[in-house]
Amino acid sequence: MEYEAVIGLETHVQLKTKSKMWCGCANAYGAEPNTNVCPVCLGLPGVLPVPNDEALRLTVLTGLLLNCEIPRFAKFDRKSYFYPDMPKNYQITQYDKPSTANGFVEFEFAGAGSTDGRSRVRITRAHLEEDVGKSFHFERTSGLDFNRAGVPLMEIVSEPDLTSPDMAYEYLNALKEILIYGGVSDCDMEKGMVRCDVNVSVRPVGAKELGAKIEIKNMNSFSGVRRALEYEIPRQIAVVKSGGKLVQSTRRWDDVTGITEQMRTKEDAHDYRYFPDPDLMPSAPDDAWLAEVKSRVVELPLARKQRFMRDYGLPASDAETFKNDVPLGDYFEGIAKNSKNPKAIANWVINNLRAKLAEASERRTGVAPVSIQDRGAENLETGATPVLPGTFADLKFPPAALLELVSLVEAKTISSAAAQQVFVEMFDTGKSPTVIVQEKGLAQVSDTGAIEKFCDEVIAANPGPANDFKSCKPAALNFLKGQVMKLSKGKANPAVAGEILERKLKS
Ligand code: ADP
Ligand code: MG
Ligand code: ZN
């Protein structure tokens, strides 16, 4: 019998708010331990929580971005458990009335049930809760830092629609991109802003019923999630194939040894004794509040990529670049709207401008820019503060200059080799391409008389290749053409040079 995997993810995301969920303490990473704390987030008796409205707005915004319903009634509940890093001994969360539910995420993944290389995963709910403090274990003592306690935390629960480690990985990346686009979270994995519980079971292919759910807790990198699943799925299949029985349980992933190990089974699972928090009013969004949140909805990353392909005729790889680097894509679009040749604009922006901007910004700040895609835990080892790509601080020429450059090439006023020189010059000086062409004498020579002379010289100096061409080796023509270009310092019109060479060699 063949088995298939069933995966559902619970993704915790720290929200991008200035202050914490129930108090005015800063929601800031990296401060000295226990400096962003107060009686509320330290769980001292006699205090009252005040909900952070921006956190509620960001949760509802997430619901809108994930195609969810927004109920007009949501409430907060207490989830009781005892842990040293949770000072109140309960966590405030949303139990049966979450802020948003019943949506889906669409992302690029080709597999069973996908259309045009896109797959869908249903979203059960996204609810708002609070983060807990952090324990540190030293040689003989332990320490607690409550700076993180009470930071707004959103939990996004997926339906068990994922079927493979790769699909889970792509889903997480798509989710992260959406949240970054929406300004909901910075999703900085290195700062633990995204953490994930992985639920996975196996069942005979085609079976309707789900197998026993095994949960791998607290994963903090997407590649870790993928690796854990790559280990856990074959492990479960091996158990059932050898006649064993899987029981619902919680496991822990060990990133160093690359295995999962059992933590507890259902019998010793927590009883959270949920009940409505008597200190907090339910949240009942009204029309004006919802309208304000709706006005913050942005185009989704995948929609943007598809639009760039459709409206500007770009290949997927270019559109992907503009999806990942939003400022670069916006810059491209501002110019491409006015161009008959958007692909040429995209080539300049991606192949030339991007590298030049990155170089200039690195020279200025001493930090290499990192793209959204590279900001995952995958580059944990660098330890560098990620800098968003697409700083245009170092750009000296106006957008119209790129249009001009493309026109000069299209009109064959300059060769593409000369255009490269013009670009470097316009980036360094901000001068217009036309002025640079004049100053540097880069205009292409289409005057056949002048090119004839170059061709004669080249044929005379290269009798070998010339004879090769005559004896039916057409490739030799390219070599000779290259020599003409060299001799003319890149100014000869290569098409004209080719024609003349061919005529001369054939006669
Ligand atoms: P809880 O965490 O309260 O136990 P659920 O069991 O309803 O909540 O679901 C938690 C997550 O586990 C969801 O993402 C859900 O899709 C997933 N899930 C539920 N049952 C299974 C299963 N049998 N196999 C894999 N994933 C599952
Ligand atoms: Mg769970
Ligand atoms: Zn506080």
Account of the 3D structure:
With 507 residues, the protein is an alpha+beta fold. The chain has three domains: 218 residues, no CATH class; 95 residues, no CATH class; 59 residues, Arc Repressor Mutant, subunit A. It is built from 15 helices and 13 strands. It has an eight-stranded mixed sheet with strand order 4-5-8-1-9-10-11-12. A three-stranded antiparallel sheet has the order 3-2-13, with no helix packed on it. It is elongated. About 3% of the residues have low confidence. Bound molecules: adenosine-5'-diphosphate, magnesium ion (MG) and zinc ion (ZN). Zinc ion binds next to loops.
Q: Can you tag this structure with a few keywords?
A:
binds adenosine-5'-diphosphate, 39% helix, alpha+beta, elongated, binds magnesium ion, Arc Repressor Mutant, subunit A, 8-stranded mixed β-sheet, binds zinc ion, 507 residues, 3-stranded antiparallel β-sheet, 15 helices
